[in-house]
Request: fold
Amino acid sequence: MTAPFEWTPDARELADLELLLSGAYHPLTGFMGPADAHSVAEHGTLADGTPWPAPVTLALPGDHPAAPGDRVTLRDPEGAPLAVLTVAERSGGLAAGPVEALGAPEHGPFARLRRTPAEVREELAGREVLAVTMRGPLDDLTEIEATAGELGAAVLLLPLAFGEGGPAVVRAALRARDRLAEGTGDTGGTGGAGSAVKGVSVAVVPLAPREDHAVDLELRERVAEAYGAAEHLAGPEPVTLPGPPHRRGLVVFFTGLSGSGKSTVARGLRDALLERGSRTVTYLDGDVVRHLLSAGLGFSREDRDLNIRRIGFVAAEAARHGGLAICAPIAPYAATRDEVRVMVEAVGADFLLVHVATPLAECERRDRKGLYAKARAGLIPEFTGISAPYEEPDDADLVVDTTAVTVEQAVRTVLDPLLQGGWVR
Reply:
């Protein structure tokens, strides 16, 4: 049964939620409050002295109305209800309390392998279990074969599938399973010295990595124990080599006041890239998006932020598949621009923020659409630069002032770094 309040946790919190509900975080039954989180971070124990390696918390914004005693429905990004949090404490931006599932979670790739500790323990009952947690491929399986043989243990491969690379880790686990079962655990995996392991299982675990490597390893150990492991091996950390820039997704995000020239420069950049023909280009102009993707939105801060998030989402999807997206909204708020950067980088793409820093006086002098005159007359409320703020970026990768340069010169100012950085050939 859903609760009167609701919230959508972020990706890391959703992963933690699934592990709380499945029992993989035993003995935890809910999200920690500040006292437990602080104690864990400082001493490696909960406030009551129970050992635990890493904080497991849920952030709830200060303006969320839920109070201690209230129940909050936690939903996934598509709006599906996953669990109910009974708020025991709200402090320091955190909401603490036990969680209860609202039904079986729905999963994407490899849903059949998303098994709970109880299911795996039942399957492997009566056997010693060697658990291997994985964040990347297992090229050499000889240590696993030797340890399993020494213990007479079944092998449980636990691919830690979190984020964009999750499916690849699961595929690596399935390949390792087949090689272990066939006794082809040498580095080449083609039939060298090795003995077949009797009993190899795979269970996908959505464990998000922790920044502190020692904490991450200890948390993996605890999860392995929850799955019934008598012995745990941590697979090697993956070595990630980014592809060449011209094959990576890229978002060029222009921001600036109305009339600053950002749309003109952005269109010029699009045309220059199309003439070169080396990249697939998606162009998202602020005004065009307003008429289509964000039709019906106003100009309150909330609506402005939602408009930028929508642009960021589309741009990130284009970049996810190796495309180059050009965005040219006003994007007046730093926090929302940061959100877009995070969206883009989360899919493995690059992000370039271009501040078109043409001064307000010059923008108002141009006033091609007559908007500044209407804003000064009070006919347009919440107009950026006049009656609504514009937060100038302090993290721009490029700054362009179009006051005294031609369109061609301004475009070249942006295109040259793309060529020098290898994003465009």
Summary: The chain is about 35% helix and 15% strand. Residues 301-320 form the longest helix (20 residues).
